[in-house]
Each structure stands twice: as C-alpha cells, then as structure tokens.
Amino acid sequence: MRTFKTFAPLIAVALAVIAWLIVSETGSRMISSWLQPWRPPGPEIGRISELEGTMKTVRDGRVREFTSLTAPLPVHSGDRIEVDNKSRAVLILNSQDEIELGPLTAAAVQLWNERDPGSPIYVTVLGGSTELRKPGVKGKAYVVRDGRLYLPGQKPVDKAMALTVVRNAPLDMHLADEGMKENPANTAPDFDPEAAAAEEDLVAKDLGAEPETLSNELIDEVIVSRQQQLQKCWLTSVRDNPNMKANLVVQFSITRRGRVKDVKIADSSSSDEDLKKCVVTVFDRLTFRSFKGSEIVLSYPIQFE
Questions:
Q1: pLDDT digit string (tens) for 104-141?
Q2: N or C: which end of the chain has fewer CB within 10 A?
C-alpha cells in the first residue's frame, strides 16, 4: 500500500499525458508520426535560403517547425512548406529559380519523375502568394495554381481551361452536312494523318528544342483550334432536339511524342451516344508538339449550348 501511494502521483501524471496525447490535435499528430513507417526523403530539389518569422515543413505526416536558419534548409521532393502569418521564406530551386513565399502561404514541391532528378520541378501553391525574385532555367520549374500550369513569375489567367461550343457560330453548313450525314463519328472527311504528322514535325522544328512538358495554354490553344469540328458534332445532334444542351468532360492522355491516346467521356449530361463518339473522334485526332517529360493526363470540360 505504501509503495502504491509513493508512485500514485507519477501514475496520475502518466495517465494525464496519455490522455492529452489521445485528445489533443498536437498529440494525435505526434502519435501518427510515431506509428508511420519511416521512409527516406525524396531527391533534394532546392533549399530555403532565407526565413523571416516562422515556417513548417511537412513530410509523410511529420511536422518540423523553424523560427530561424543557421544554414540553408534542404527541400526534398514531396515536402510541403507552410509559412506562418507575418512571415516570409525564400525557396531556391535546383532550376535556379528564386521564389519568395509570402505570409500564410502553403506550397507542395514535387519532381515530375522522382526517378529522374533532371525532370521538371512542380511547385503547387495550396494557398497564399508567391513572387519570383530571380528567374532560373526556363522549362525546368513550373508553378501550379488552381489546377493550371505556369512558368515561375507568369501571371495567372482567369480563364478556365475549358471550351464552350456555340451552335450559331460561323460554320460552313454544307461541309457539316457532308461530313456528318453518313458517319456521325467522322468530323473531318478531309483529314490526312500523314499530312498532319508532317505538319506537326515542321511546327516542332520551328519551335526549337523540346520543352520539358506542355503548358495548359498550349493545350487549350490546340483544342480550341478544333472548335469547328466539335461544332459539327453538335449541329448534327441538335437536329432532332433543337433545345438540347450538353456538358461533357473529356479525359485523355498526351504522349511524349505529342500523340493523344485513351480518350473517353468521363462525365456527360447528355445521353446522345453519337455526340460522345464524335467528340472522342475529334480528340483522337489532336496532335501536339513533342516534349521530354512524362505523359500528361487531364480532363477537359466542353459545354455545348
């Protein structure tokens, strides 16, 4: 009995600590980090060279807080950087881009391909503001904001990557009738794959060296250039239902050679199968310039009205 009384205060303190660990957010985070298996960090892709105030780095659920730096802090692929209020940090990437992270900014940094240290670096801005202090090697780093891809320092645009096809836009109706009457999926009767490939190679040579990847702006421009073909699909569908409208989401991949594959309609407000097949055919025939990075997979909304 005397022994129990001696250790009772220690037991009470231990129980209180365990209860705090279970109930509190900080304690839960600590337990989570203890239980998670340790994994080596991804490749080093930059460093924090300056810090005013406080910031955190998060990797695999493990949080580290910094109030000052005695030396540049390495940043690895897969890290998330969170800058506190009234604070700022300067991130220098291996691409030599110097990016200032403002107060209350959160950004995740990732190599496009972690098995290739030379692949592009993606800085995904989850919140807050960034400012390019010094540009690096063009095409070696990109900033992702609101699902769109930008070069560091490039001004974000308000236009979403999507297309609205309006039925009363100018179009050669005779061509639309001839191209769609017998085969709804055939939107371009004059399409020549060999000529298109030759044209693509010529464009690629004119544009110079291959980029690391394709920007959203370039992808958008290529799709918009096929707007009349998509309009032919639409005009054929509305002949039987003039008041019909449709929203489609097209999912597809772009290979390193600029070819399109795996096209499918991921979502649709219309049950018109001919319209869907026609749109898939148009996207199947898209050609982009070649690039060095991994395949691009994206979803593209189209609104027909």
A1: 999 999 887 777 888 888 898 989 999 999 999 877 88
A2: N
| pLDDT tens digits for range 37-74 | 546 678 999 999 999 999 999 988 889 999 999 999 99
The tally of CA atoms less than 13 A away on the side-chain side of residue 232 is: 25
pTM of the model: 0.48
Dihedral pair phi/psi, residue 225, rounded to 5°: -65, -15
Q: What are the angstrom distances between the C-alpha of 241 and each of 75, 77, 173, 237, 245?
A: 57, 52, 17, 7, 9
Q: What is the DSSP string of 3-49?
A: HHHHHHHHHHHHHHHHHHHHHSHHHHHHHHHHHSPP-----EEEEEE
Query: CA-CA distance, 80 to 95, in Å (whole number)?
Result: 18
Place of tokens 């670096």: 121
Return the structure tokens found at 259. 């070819």
**By the 8 A CB rule, do 103 and 84 touch?**
yes
Q: Which domains does the chain have, with CATH numbers?
A: 44-150 (no CATH), 163-304 (3.30.2420.10)
Q: At what angle do helices 173-180 and 227-237 cross, to 10 degrees?
A: 70
Determine the distance from the C-alpha atom of residue 32 to the mean position of all C-alpha atoms in its chain, rounded to a whole number: 28
- d(Cα 143, Cα 100) in Å, to the nearest integer? 12
For residue 230 the two structure tokens come to 């998509």
Written as six digits, the tokens of 199 are 């044209």
